[in-house]
Design a protein that fits this description.
The structure holds 2 protein chains of 2 kinds. By secondary structure, chain A is α/β, with parallel strands linked by helices. Chain A is built from 7 helices and 13 strands. Chain A has a 9-stranded mixed sheet with strand order 3-2-4-5-6-11-10-9-7, sandwiched between helices. Chain A has a two-stranded antiparallel sheet with strand order 12-13. In chain A, strand 12 and strand 13 form a beta hairpin. Chain A is elongated, with a radius of gyration of 37 Å. Chain B is flat and about 125 Å long. The relative contact order of chain B is 0.04. Classes of the chains: A alpha/beta, B mainly alpha. At the A-B interface, strand 1, helix 1, strand 5, strand 7 and helix 5 of A face strand 2, helix 1, strand 4, helix 3 and strand 7 of B. Chain A: Keywords: Nucleus. Chain A: It is found in: Nucleus, Nucleolus.
Chain lengths: 314, 328
């Protein structure tokens, strides 16, 4: 057996970055297209790439062998996901049967987890919107999400699409957020049971009387209608495994411990009642020695009985 | 409209309105857009209300707020990492209660009276710098103490490598090998019983045409072919040639070969290497056979030789017993 390591520290650090972590940082996206694309689809893909500039990779060549919904056609996607360390992908293709087709997919451990196929209609690109340039959202800012419509809850496909869109545009999960840097919203409205209106807007925070500013939405980004065509749910067992969280993150509650500001850490100890009556008494209880001695003192007038001598058999 | 209708997930800055319905079926696209923006504004306002009411700390760039964890769970992208099993040293240290102590990079060197680094160029206690090693009472004369020290260091390093390999193997068993390390086998395992799974080669596959009448016969033929190919055949090599250039550690093979030949020669011509018991048994067996042939009447009990520990001359006809040298 031989230990193989990379000699360059830079490569080692890169490999460690790609290793599975207990708490995960942001997912990367791979944007690519199939055999044939339309101009609409091309602009959709580039705009999604610009929206996610810091954490996405866009491939420019066409990929013939990729068919996400067929069993053999996923191998290429999985290989790319492994090489680029991307767990989300956006695959665009155009055909007569499915015009302006976009497949949004996720991978778990570089294998396909789930897929949603969506058709793009009524696309308006970023350039077509005119607005005050100062409002333009910064790259990498954390977005707000607004989902409107009961269909997102009732219809299975839209529920799935909601989850995938959230995953796609969410960015990193952070604990500390700078309130001055909030400047974008993704608005998704369920127009019918299989069609949603998706739009990207900039936020303008206006002064109001209270601490909370008044929000104003200005359409800046791409807006399109998404028609859900096909989708594939993950396997139940795979889903269960993917949804596992780190066991140490569940905080253990320590009972009977209280932190006091003045005295510090205080603990309560509960002692069970002593069962005095049930205790067994032994013969050699030291307390009885006193009693015996006292008894002896009292009975001193009566002569102590002489010790009986052993009488030999005569 | 009460804002509690919206489901707000602060960790994701998400607001979901599950009760919205378009009042009238949307006639034109602009209406949809307008409605969407209106509703969107309301939802975002709801999230912002909750957000700005969180306790915030002032920073140079703006107020910083601690976000709660997101409520809507999303799947992981990679499986959970498995915890690494403790190494042999870690187990020992825990048992003994040894605490980890970080060493400083600079150590005071008494010899020069200066601070030298612990590892690297011009280090403290460098092995190569020692000019004189005093002989101890336990030292054997003729041993080189410098070479001894070098050997000791080498053995320590090898032991450490062995331990490291063992620890990594344990980690691999638990599925927790570090991501920049791979364990590779240095040589292929000797597959005595396990044969590598062979795929049906192209020529076999093209041989059969499995249609209709000849299906069974073809199938049988293919089976035979496969069985024949699987039988272990003698490797065509009948002679072993040693490599021309003696590599490191290869010198032994030549010595072994010559030793073997030498032993064979000596054993043929030396009578000291004689298995006396075996020789006597062989003689006895032959005698019995002869007696049985001649006549059953005669008693065969009598003169059976018992093996005497004295060395006899070789009586068997095997080999050329050239009576060179010593006679009894």
């Amino acid at each position: 057996m031989r230990i193989k390591t990379q000699t360059k520290g830079r490569i080692r650090r890169e490999l460690d970055k790609r290793a599975p972590k207990l708490v995960e940082t942001g997912k990367k996206t791979l944007i690519l297209h199939g055999t044939k694309t339309s101009s609409v689809l091309n602009s959709v893909l580039t705009e999604i790439y610009h929206l996610k500039k810091g954490n996405s990779i866009k491939y420019s060549r066409k990929n013939d062998k990729i068919r996400p919904f067929e069993s053999g056609g996923e191998a290429s996607l999985e290989f790319f996901s492994l090489k680029t360390d991307c767990s989300l992908f956006v695959f665009g293709s155009h055909s007569k049967k499915r015009p302006n087709n976009l497949v949004l997919g996720r991978t778990y451990d570089h294998h396909i987890y789930d897929l949603v196929e969506v058709g793009i209609e009524n696309f308006r690109s970023m350039e077509s919107f005119s607005y005050d340039k100062k409002l333009a959202p910064q790259i990498g800012s954390k977005p707000f999400f607004a989902f409107i419509g009961e269909a997102f809850e009732s219809v299975d496909e839209l529920k799935h699409l909601k989850e995938v869109l959230l995953d796609l545009f969410r960015g990193e999960v952070v604990t500390n957020l700078n309130l001055a840097g909030l400047d974008r919203v993704y608005v998704c409205t369920a127009v019918s049971s299989n069609k949603i209106f998706f739009s990207h807007c900039a936020l303008r925070l206006k002064k109001s009387g209270t601490v909370v500013p008044r929000m104003e939405l200005v359409e800046v980004g791409p807006s399109m209608d998404m028609v859900v065509r096909r989708h594939r749910h993950p396997d139940d067992s795979l889903r269960k495994e993917a949804m596992k969280t780190a066991p140490e993150l569940t905080k253990k509650k320590v009972k009977n411990v209280v932190k006091d500001d003045i005295q510090g850490k205080l603990g309560k100890i509960y002692i069970p009642d002593q069962k005095v009556g049930d205790m067994p008494l032994t013969n050699n209880v030291k307390g009885l020695k006193e009693e015996r001695r006292e008894a002896k003192m009292k009975g001193e007038d009566s002569k102590p009985t002489p010790k009986k001598q052993k009488q030999d058999a005569e | 409209m009460a804002e509690t209708q919206y489901e707000v997930d602060l960790g994701n800055l998400l607001a979901f309105d599950a009760h919205h319905q378009f009042a009238s079926p949307p006639s034109s696209r602009e209406e949809i857009v307008k409605e969407a923006l209106e509703q969107g504004t309301k939802l975002v306002q709801a999230v912002a209300d909750a957000l700005f009411n969180l306790p915030s700390t002032e920073d140079l760039e703006g107020p910083i707020v601690k976000l709660p964890a997101p409520t809507s769970k999303l799947p992981r992208e990679k499986p959970l990492p498995k915890p690494r099993p403790p190494t042999k040293w870690e187990v020992f240290a825990q048992k003994k209660g040894i605490q980890k102590r970080n060493k400083e990079k600079l150590v005071f060197d008494e010899q020069t009276g200066s601070w030298k680094r612990r590892h690297g160029y011009d280090r403290v206690n460098d092995d190569n710098d020692i000019p004189i090693i005093e002989a101890k009472a336990t030292d054997e004369p003729g041993t080189d103490p410098f070479a001894e020290r070098r050997k000791e260091k080498k053995s320590k390093v090898e032991k450490q490598e062995k331990n490291r390999l063992h620890n990594l193997k344990q980690a691999q068993k638990a599925g927790a090998l570090p991501s920049h390390i791979q364990l590779a086998a240095t040589s292929l395992p000797i597959t005595g019983t396990q044969t590598m799974p062979k795929k049906v080669s192209k020529d076999l596959a093209t041989k059969c045409c499995w249609n209709g009448s000849n299906f069974n016969s073809q199938r049988w033929k293919i089976r035979q072919e496969i069985a024949w190919r699987k039988t272990p055949k003698h490797e065509k090599k009948y002679r072993k040639f040693l490599p021309a250039v003696e590599g490191s550690g290869m010198g032994d093979m030549e010595r072994q070969q010559t030793e073997k030949v030498l032993n064979k020669l000596i054993s043929k011509n030396s009578h000291e290497i004689l298995n006396v018991e075996k020789a006597v048994n062989m003689y006895n067996v032959k005698r019995e056979k002869r007696q049985r042939k001649q006549g059953g009447g005669q008693s065969s009990s009598s003169s059976k030789f018992k093996p005497n520990k004295k060395s006899f001359k070789k009586t068997s006809h095997k080999g050329s017993s050239s009576n060179k040298g010593k006679s009894k």
